[in-house]
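User: Thanks for the earlier help. One more: Beta-ketoacyl-[acyl-carrier-protein] synthase III. Can you show the sequence and predicted structure together?

Assistant: Of course, both are below.
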Amino acid sequence: MSGAARPLGRSAVVCGIGSYVPPDKVTNDELSRRLDTSDAWIRSRTGIAERYVVSPGTATSDLAVEAGLRALKSASTEQVDAVVLATTTPDQPCPATAPAVAARLGLGQVAAFDVAAVCSGFLYGLATSSGLIASGMAERVLLVAADAFTTIINPEDRTTAVIFADGAGAVVLRAGDAGEPGAVGPMVLGSDGELSHLIEVPAGGSRQRSAGTPPEPGDQYFRMLGRDTYRHAVERMTATSQEAAELSGWRLDDVDRFAAHQANARILDSVAERLGIPAERQLSNIEQVGNTGAASLPLLLSQSAAEGRLTAGHRVLLTAFGGGLSWGAATLVWPEVQSV
């Protein structure tokens, strides 16, 4: 589903941003003590040196609340009309986690719901939140992307245990004009369910449960066919980035900062190379935080803004790819906003 170059009018505008990672850090050397791997192997194949993980008893909502608090503080507001939570790891299958997050943030009885698009979740949530604002249903929306991804990872599987981590990022969106800094530009979204087997958790859903048989060993964990996923991720993120830039009236040379889902350093390098975006214009934090699922993009934006790598006026191109398969891209000019 492609966006469209639209005339100036009511639009969703980023006015606050915040992020959070749990305090427990796990280095490659620590993982190497229990897995058949090494720091050099992990760095060479993923670009990751360390990651943050939840402690026992910590859930996705705990991460989401912390990031939400920071985004609300950044936006200097205590009230929104809706809360959208992008996650693959809800606190429980039912109910959605977003209402609990809204309640814990003291936001009252606002609309609150989850969006599930795996690592593309933030962009799908951004499109949904922008629609609420553009339609007039909301003046302000808190969009949170949070994942306790390590809770669905097999700790003995070195192909996934070294990559995935936990964290949360959030933005506050307000109604504004399409031409002002922070306005969400044209978006491109897509999916291919025929390839859903490339990224999946086989057990735990209605299909496995209705079969009346216990899950096969390991089926409760996340699994990914890495080689095929790599190819599709590079192709889809490259194509959607090109399309989003074109819809915005940008040349790729106009992009000041390229923010891609932090999936794997090799994927990021391949996409940037195909787009012709040099290293100095790429935002990256995968070395420090790993792949945090839906939280990846807002966590990257928040940390980059806090560190001064992303400043007001930068033309930003965002893209992501995840299970589903799902993918997307969007543009915006970064506003004058303080990351918390």
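User: Great, one quick takeaway?

Assistant: The two ends are 33 Å apart (CA to CA).
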